[in-house]
Queue: 3 jobs
Job 1
Amino acid sequence: MSDTGAGVETNAPDADVEIDEAEAHDSEVEEAAKHTPRGVPLRVEGLRKEFGGIVAVDGADFAVEEGSLTGLIGPNGAGKSTTFNCITGVHEPTDGAVHFRGEEISGMSPDSVANRGLVRTFQIARELEEMTVLENMMLAPKGQTGESLWRSVLPGLRSGIMGEERKILEDCWEMLDFFEIDHLAHEYAGNLSGGQRKLLELARALMTDPTMLLLDEPFAGVNPSLEERLLEHVHELREEGYTFLIVEHDMDLIMENCEHVIVMHQGRMLTEGTPEEVQSNEQVIEAYLGGEVE
Amino acid sequence: MGVNDTYSRGRELLIADPVRAALVLALVVLLLDLVRQLVFGQVPVSQFVVLLKDGLMRGLFFGLAGIGLSMTYSILNFANFAHGDFITSGAFSGMIVTYIIAGGFGAEADIGSLALVGAGGSVFGAQLGIGVASTPLAVLGGVIAAALFTILLSLFIDRTVFEPIRDRSGITLLITSIGVAFVLRYLIAFIFDPSRRGVTDSNAVPSTDILVYDGFVSVDLHEVSLLVVSVLLMLGLHLLLQRTKLGKAMRAMSDNEDLARITGIPTERVIRYTWIIGAGLTGVAGYMFVIWNGTLHWFQGWILLLPIFAAVILGGIGSVYGAIVGGLVIGLTMSVSIVWVPTGLARASAFLVMILMLLVRPSGIFSGGSTA
Amino acid sequence: MSGTNDDADGKDDPVGGVRAAAEQLWEEDAVKLLGLILGIFALYLVGGALLDFGARQQVNLLANLFFYIGVFAMLALALNLHWGYTGLFNIGVIGFMAIGIYTTAVLAKEPALTEPAAGSIGGFGLPLWLAIIGGVLAAAAFGGLVALPALRLRADYFAIVTVGVSEIVRFTVLESDFQKMQIAGYFVGLGGGSGLILDFDPTDDLLEALGLLEPYTAFTESAGAALSLGSNPKPVFDSLLYGLILLVFLIGFYVLLRRVGNSPFGRVLKAIREDEEATQSLGKNTRRFKITAFMFGCALMGLGGILFFAVQGAITPSAFRPRLTFFVWIALIIGGAGSTTGSVMGGAIFAAFLFRGPLFIKNVVQQNVDSDAVDTFGQAVSPLISGLDPFPMLLFITDNLQQLQLVIMGLVLIYLMHNRPEGMLGHRKEEASTISLNRPERSTDSPGATPATDGGEPVDGGDTDE
């Protein structure tokens, strides 16, 4: 609970050294990334999910490297969202396993997954509408002692949580500053624009102090200038050591920004590799680009 | 952490599956016990048949009245807590007409007393000799009046109360329907006075005793009437749903309202017909229940509402056939349960069945909706 | 409560100023409440004066009024924790109240170790305060029993389960098999249809425990004479004293729920109300929070039930019909779900105008009009139609106001859902934090009110870039 993660400070584990290097030699980042063996926080093996006989995901196998920006793409109905939901504990996989930092997390409840540092955002931003932006933010930090009923009501104990609240509030303000939405702090989340909600959702997810973020179509419904800002933030955070897995519809966006791309089609893994490899893959062109006009 | 999670997952499994297993086991034990009690004569077979008959009657009523609730629940997407008071309204409106006809339009009693169904103890059903055999026209008139009045009432309430807030959440509509229930219920108590009254002449009901193994089971005409009316109406509804365009539209809408909108079914029209069919059946059900039961009072529908909810949920919301089957299950549960529990807890056991059902299989026996 | 939200300039104030503002705000709420309740009292006093009520009648009137304001406000507060904060659609309030008072009654009644006479049932003879704690714990435990399996149901199913459970409770206390039984030598029971006689007196018990009973009795005699309250003034003072006890409990409820509402715990509850899945995705074990909140609310409902019925002298199952649940709901909706202050105001308004008001009017009319009302609606209607004489109808209406008052409640409920679903103070705007959420002093270095650089409008721009 110590450093609730104003994202501007580096607190993602294991990657510090590399990042320092990366910052020093900007041009060599890609090189270094390719040659240094990195950890694999997320590994999905033989993932399969059926809904009453309908197979939504039919054997997904992939891994996400530490500190990477990995894209998961595929046409509509490819099973991306179901895969996401299986990773984050919303659905229990019918078969297969999901490992996060060496621990099997498939079948865990969503809150257990989140508490392990794997935090998601939603395709349609799920703000808590009748709560202010700040309340949304202050909700997020993990393991707040004030989340116990007795601590919040009993006179002696209650004063003990004040200090913690102050610390959280400070962190929240810093995070809002970082995302440049501090002017909205007292606004009800329900009054935010679609793009502002996406920013808030990412900021809120960061307040949980995660090590890896799963973003479900973070750029859908976001205007171009805000999209750019959001992308900047993502890159900035990645450089700090956060790992990202992004589900996205917009092929170009993924190709330009991700270093590793996983392609799904009709519930199966089609291929994976660098953007160049994927783009030149015949199957991908046929299945994805042929099917979708984007 | 790992141990902790294995533990919590194990616990989840314990909550999810063994409950189901335990329920099945409990059911089997109860059935075996029933067989034992029947074989050893602790419960005479004829008495058990009486319970079954009683449960069937109740069940048919729950089913008939539940169809309307189930339809509005799925098509308008809210639990209508005023449904019970639609039942009461149907029963009272039908009884007004029955009293007036049976009372010779004022020849046998003051017309005002007849129109108030004998409020203040001014006139009794037995005095007028009300019964299916003795006053068939009065009963027929009552059935028709109950259906018509309940339909008009439901359309009026839909127009004034529910239509303006159609786009709000199901919860808002539910709370609003509680308001409607209060208005109807206490308006009935206000106008017709809060007494419980006998409305039929039990001496005028022909009945016959049938020998069943170790005793006689009596069957009377009012029971047969409830059976015939329920089955005929259910069959009619079945044909309507399966054979007509309207029926198909209604089934489509209860499956998916948005889809129905896109495919161009005039939803407000379908909603109107939903009320007409649902309320018509509800009114008749309420009236026939009173004829069968012989008594009428202002909160009759309200106390019947919860078992009807149980029936509808049991059968799966939106499923017409589910409502019928659910009704029978709840009706039989209520009457047969007194083999094991005190009579006063018969209704409690029906609610318990509903609650257990919700926990084990919230989508009902006929899950998958209205098309069934 | 909107004060904290529109203050972009608030962060320029020194911390002390912020605190003062917050305190002022709290006072504002308290003032609002106090004003409302005093206004209601004044209204009733004027009404009583117009009726030539004597001092005794006036005091009784107010004590009675405050009793209902207190209990409905407390129950609305408890329900607000379920519905307003957590979004748990509990329409079985009366069941938890029944568990509370029945448990208390069975625990506290005088023990009967030999078979008591027909119609009388003993208890376990515990001191009342212990029995009350027992009742509260029983209500909480029962709430947990319901919550464990039922909390994963959707809201409307949850509602049906809770109302079903409250009816099961009523059938159980009504059941003659549980009327009387022998447990560990004690003849106890739930009393069946004839209910239980409550052979304890909360005010006397309290005074006795404090050693004040005798001076109190002496005081009532002298003060009663001084105020010309007539013979035997003690019951009048008892009801006033009980009103005071209720006030203490009400303040306790209010402070407690205020604290819950603006704590990190309450923040999670509100988040669950808004979107449970999103809350889970932030690592909150929503199930645990829901169970805790539900049990806590049930405990408060149990306490509310105890305070409601402990002074009635007896309890019968017919008092525990679901309509009392709906009364509490109407009170909460009037005040505004999600608002602590609103809950109390709703309770007060409901008690004063919808619950007691019609009866007061009935008394007024019956005291001033000599003729008796006719017996049936027909007899009242016919003069209206034939001779345009509304008088019999008006008399009939006042005579049957008990029924009509519920019609009015129903209409009020429909009206509120149509026109003001957020109630008087709804909109759930009480901020969920123990501290003021204004920007702390030291981090004001960043640009203050930055305009929306992304071009997204701050308000109602939800669709602009979709």
Job 2
Amino acid sequence: MGSNLISSTGGKGRKRVRVPKSRAERFSVAPPLETGAPTDLELMKAIQAEDPDALSQLYDRYNGILKALILRVIHNEAEADDLLQEIFMEIWNQAKNFSSQKGKPLGWMVTLARRRAIDGLRKKQAYARAEERLQNETEQQPEAWVHNATEEEIVLSDTRSLIRKVISGLPPAQQQAIDLAFFRGMSQREIAAKTNTPLGTVKTRLELGLKKIYDGLKELRGEL
Amino acid sequence: MSFKEFQNQSRLYVIGALESEELEEFEKARKKFGKKAEDYISECYGLHEAFALSLQPAKASTAIKDRLMAMVRARKET
């Protein structure tokens, strides 16, 4: 297996960390870091060694993304904040189960956050309330907070706009099917029932949409 | 199941959209294709990352981080 050399500067100057190169890393669309900032992988290793400051840095880097994901699932600000705290606590407690061989830290955190958010949604039986709020919201997520964009946020925003471009290229029915499956945790049958669409059509929409996004992201990877 | 079909199913699998009857066939194919299958599934999890990055980040309450770090430090001391 090959390897990437990732340069990073810590407090004591420049250091080079050898990181195994995996297919998952090549596919990643995570935004680039500021020069000298520790990589996500370095932070995860420090968290595995029980360094609270590493968790603090990881929180600062990704709380906005993870909260947006949770909000998209449960549509409740206060519950999203509580869940965000629980998820970062779980990241701390479960860090030992993270393996860089299986993917990147952000992917692992998003998977964990999505699962917790969907579990939370089901446990609280908040479907009805979330349905109502969802219908009142526009397709575009509203600006959550008005603030001056930092350089990191601008880079992230570029990444986001490129990803959104890929997703918005899909027919609305495919976007809807993927949205319901990913952000609402719905099965194909549940999507079929909710959208009054034949099961086979839902399956085709999901397959075509996901393939287009997957292929689009692979191309996008070269632009980031 | 061909590997191309497996790839299609993998993308559904990672977002939890396979129905139970499909899951059984998928797991059989996963065993059959071995490491190639595992590598492909790992790659598909990149979709999670992308879907999350497509959202406008939301600002968390400042009290959340304070509470979190207090809990982590307390946990570490015990």
Job 3
Amino acid sequence: MNEAFFISILVITIRAGASLLYATFGAIITERSGIQNLGVEGIMIASAAVSFAAAFHFGSAWIGVGAAILTGVLLGLILALLTITLRAEQVVSGLAITIFGSGLASFMGQRLGPGSTTMVGLQGPSFQRIPIPYLIEIPYIGPSLFNQDLLIYILYLIIPIIWFYFYKTRKGLELRAVGENPQAVDALGINVTRLRFTYTIIGAVFMSIAGAHLSLGYLQGWADNITGGRGWIAIALVIFSTWNPLRAVLGAILFGGINAIQFRMQAAGTTLPSSFLNMLPYLATILVLIFITWTEKFRKRLGTPTALGIPFVREEKR
Amino acid sequence: MRIQLIKKTNPKGITNLTIPIVSFALALLFNALLLIIFGINPIQAYTVMLKGSLGSPYALSETLVKAIPLMLTGLGVSIAFHMHFWNIGAEGQLAMGGIAAAFAALFLQDSIAPALMLPTMIILGIIAGAIWGLIPAILKSSLGVNEILTTLMMNYIAILTVEYLYLGPWRDPQGYGFPGTAKFPEYAWLPAITGRIHYGLIFALIGAVLLWLILKFTKLGYEIRLIGENPKAARYSGINIGRNIVIVMLLSGGLAGIAGMAEVAGISRRLYTGLTVGYGYTAIIVAWLANLNPWGVLIVSFLMGALLIGGDQLQVAMQTPAAVAQILQGAILFFMLGGSIFNRYKLMIISGKQKEKTEAEHE
């Protein structure tokens, strides 16, 4: 295997994995606070559409990211209102966000091109790859890790920050506690509702950046069904990571790698029908889920936050 | 003074239609705002949707045609939701049913009598859908693998399998490149009751009766409801949850399988890309809006069918994306979910003095 080929695989792995990791971080943050967000796919695809449209019409990829963040805040707010304030069923609330977000994205995709036409095939501003001097000269690692776009470099910084926040700060301790035992957090005089609202919205913002990176960084354009289940794969990665952000990095690299292999095989013109090639990530998700559930079963628990999906009701404490 | 939510003492027994109707109205308003933002006249759009879906006998019949797969998948999803087994794989189960039926219609022409073709297609459709539902059920009951993700991933696999078949080995050799299989022989067509409304409607009615009977009168139905309401109590009382998951998912997948069979045999009469257009996802909304009640599923399916046909009309008449229907579905679900709190809680505005009194009452 020659060097150029190997590096091209690594480059795609990072690019595909980055969007997955943003989404997975978002889902971990939300679930750690005790709220299940099954709207990842919807938030991602709506944000991908909004960010591409905004970037295209205002001529700046950063405005695209800003618009995506706004989308994430709004959809996260809807989910938080439903699940926290109104104590609605969390699984169905998340599905509702996904259905709504997918509809919105499909609508905007057909409508927000120039003169109310489709956005498919348009070229707009995007995040270009910026090689980092010196670092890029490291063999293999340099050209794959340090010749990427800005959203990916920001993600490199987020990884240690999120780990530090989770495990080394008081706020992080509160976040982990509120998903495990909200009654105890409440007894300490901390506002459970406010905490959950905050993290549900922050989580949704991460998911929206994942969407923006799809249409402005990785794929650089709009296509119908651009997310192709990546939001759901991110939810599977949360389980794979056992809610640990560092293990999520591993998962994202694994699935980014599957994407890269798929991509390279398609480009190389394999005899395998493309339908089968496209099944790879979904099959892998099922297999990984089976494997992780099976192995973690022996360790007694999966790391699922104990209070995940259970509304916090103060009055019922007797 | 403050607003407080008080738990209702009798959360059961509320069968009023206030919440769904108010939710629908609020969703229409919310959606109208979105349409205005995008420069579309909502009144004009809603008129087109209403006329196109309910305004003429033809429109009504198209709505009913669209409602049939929603009824069948909606029934399937609702029985699984009853025990909080989140089957969001109806789309894939429908696709597998369609594949199995198409297999019989295309490749068993020589080995079975024409009169037995439709029954064979029905049975194979049920079996294929049930197997697709069985896999996540077994994974859940034996290992505890998250069913939301497995059912969903299996949708993608099923849809890609359909694509592989009609683009690859099953493609019509005389189709001039049309992406689809050959047309089925006429005896493999599901007969019409009237116009384009086919016997799938009868399947849906039978399915609803069956589910109602199961839920109301059988031990299985009792156990399903108990597991859904209180899984801990169900386990303590000796109910085998794993076994129930398997049975329920066989039923659920089987119902979606017939939906797929009815779609290919009653509408397209071939396997092609139009089989998987999202009925399985709309089924989730149908089930929830119907409060998981079989009769409710039939009614809500009709309304959602109208919404989908209305969306198509919007595209034809106003060049407005049909996705408006999907946005509206999502919005309806938001308001339904939000409103459901009034099923369980009373809203009370409490002044300082009253507060102690009400609290004493509820102790």
